[in-house]
Specification:
Layout (H helix, E strand, L loop, with lengths): L1 H10 L25 H16 L5 H17 L3 H10 L3 H14 L10 H24 L21 H36 L13 H29 L4
Helix pairs in contact: 5-6, 5-8, 6-8, 7-8
Length: 241
């Protein structure tokens, strides 16, 4: 970055004329553009990562190939899934049952590994978000989408009121999500401990399949649902939208 910035001030090559180029920073009159430090940063980050991992690429290629196969196999069903998500009253059942079944039948290991817990967290959060989108659409809780995004000239400037509003919405949303997460986690653990007759101080009990998967799945499904449905409802109730 130092070399690129110094080279700009030495070469003093002007930037392209505006128009056709859109000038975003209007406070600066004379700022030179050769060489582009954005291009330098993007190049050095990308190729440094590539070159430094050239001899350790096997896992990366494996992940790319698996993902490519999954995309090819599932792509024909994307439109159907989107329609079911928008209209089918049975879709929430599938969204909850299928991921929970996959998590509960996760391959067993000789020793404990956090992989099953992480997988449950990811699938549960995804199920909660998907369920939230379905609730918003089915009960018409979401606002109608705008016809198109505004052009760059029509984007309003960032004001103090906008900044305060954004921070307030963020704080309110995070607070509600953390509250829901803590409440649901504590309640689900108490129910499961009581059901399986396990002492609440037994930390190892959380790792048992019949406890770990249900409590994490319920907790993070609630988090996903809260983030997509209840947080916007609270914003609307408080007049933050």
């Amino acid at each position: 970055m130092y070399i690129g910035q110094v080279a700009k001030d030495i070469l003093k090559w002007p930037r392209p004329l505006s128009p056709p180029v859109v000038k975003l920073e209007k406070r600066v009159i004379d700022e030179y553009g050769m060489p582009s430090t954005h291009a330098m940063a993007a190049t050095v980050i990308s190729f440094t990562l590539l070159i430094s991992t050239m001899d350790r690429y096997q896992d990366v290629l494996g992940g790319i190939l698996v993902t490519a196969v999954l995309i090819v196999l599932t792509y024909p069903a994307w439109t159907l899934i989107d329609r079911l998500d928008s209209a089918s009253p049975l879709f929430p059942v599938c969204v909850i049952v299928v991921p929970f079944f996959l998590c509960y039948t996760y391959p067993a290991s000789d020793c404990y590994s956090p992989t099953r817990a992480d997988t449950t967290t990811i699938l549960a959060a995804g199920a909660g978000v998907t369920l939230g989108f379905w609730v918003n659409h089915f009960f018409q809780l979401a606002s109608a989408p705008t016809e198109s995004l505004p052009g760059i000239q029509n984007i309003p400037p960032l004001t103090t009121n906008m900044l305060v509003l954004g921070l307030t919405k963020f704080t309110v949303g995070i607070a509600l999500i953390l509250l829901v997460r803590q409440l649901v986690q504590n309640l689900s653990l108490q129910v499961l401990y009581s059901w399986f007759k396990v002492g609440p101080r037994n930390k190892e009990a959380r790792r048992r399949l019949e406890i770990e998967v249900p409590y994490k799945f319920v907790t993070y499904t609630s988090v996903g649902l809260c983030a997509t449905t209840f947080v916007p409802m609270l914003h609307r109730f408080l007049g933050l939208l």
